[in-house]
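ASSEMBLY PREDICTION REQUEST
Request ID: AP-0331
Submitted by: J.K., bench scientist
Number of chains: four
Total residues: 308
Priority: normal
Notes: Please return the full assembly, not individual chains.
Input sequences:
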Amino acid sequence: MQYLLYKDLSEEEIENLIKKMIEICKEKGIKVTTQRILIFKELAKKTKEHPAAEDIYEALKDKVYGLSLSTVYRALNTFESLGLVRRIPTADGKAHFEIANEPHGHFICQRCGKVKDIESAHLNNLLKEEVKKQGFNPTECNFVCYGLCKECSN
Amino acid sequence: MQYLLYKDLSEEEIENLIKKMIEICKEKGIKVTTQRILIFKELAKKTKEHPAAEDIYEALKDKVYGLSLSTVYRALNTFESLGLVRRIPTADGKAHFEIANEPHGHFICQRCGKVKDIESAHLNNLLKEEVKKQGFNPTECNFVCYGLCKECSN
DNA sequence: ATTTCTGCAAAATTTTTGCAAGAGG
DNA sequence: CCTCTTGCAAAAATTTTGCAGAAAT
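STATUS: Completed
Returned structure:
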């Protein structure tokens, strides 16, 4: 049961995430709009790729009549503050996003900028403990590695 | 000898870093200008604070006649590509910088956005090994933690 | 001398916001 | 209905760039 994060989410997992998202929205009085559902779903499909807002917009703009980039930003910000989505600040000057699943690390390619997941539950726990020892009170710990991805090493 | 990172660099350490920077610039045919020296020095003084380009600009603009923000950006980019300075992408939409000293983690406050260092040499080594096992070839690994800093928890 | 760098202003990029019209509960 | 959301355009914010003059080697 390791390295689960390398797998795309199944259709079923995506549907379940959407249900959870709808539930949480209703709970908080946030309206469940077509745009929000489709944006969330698109991110869920691509979570392994850690898309930027623009990527999601590009994927949806022909499917959702009149969709605007600002709606994508607004939806992602909303999901982030609900804890459903995580923002990954990268060195390319754009914010990238992923579904907030179990914590894990990110490997960022210094040439092509792609972000890949690193399985790290064990290390994340170690890290959290150590950080607490040093007097912080973390809600979330991640790690980031830089280097060349397989494709770019050739 | 732990938690060294919490200390500001001493005058002497800063002077040594500057010497090293000058050496590397000369080696690479990069010119040693007043602006570059002062920008590097200002970052060295503030490295614990992880300033953004603008912070460095603000600190220097009255001391360096006519200094412009773009020069600060250009200098920081140059230093980064020389491996002298590290860029820390944060969630506030600005790039922050630090002197590229020994690898360590960062704690980012979710309320005030301040970035603090976490001593983590041991964990960084563990991490690098684990990441290699997973098939990556990292040049550098860092930790990032989110939470509320001491000041903001009150 | 030659090359590189700086300052300025302008451009490019990413993200946010104001507002009127539209959709959700 | 009332509130929240969207789309659009405009604004804001951060970072990069072109170019002429200045500085470094």
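REVIEWER COMMENTS: Residues 26, 29, 31-34, 52-54, 69-70, 73-74, 77, 93-95 of chain B lie near DNA strand D (CB under 10 Å from a C1').
SIGN-OFF: pending second reviewer
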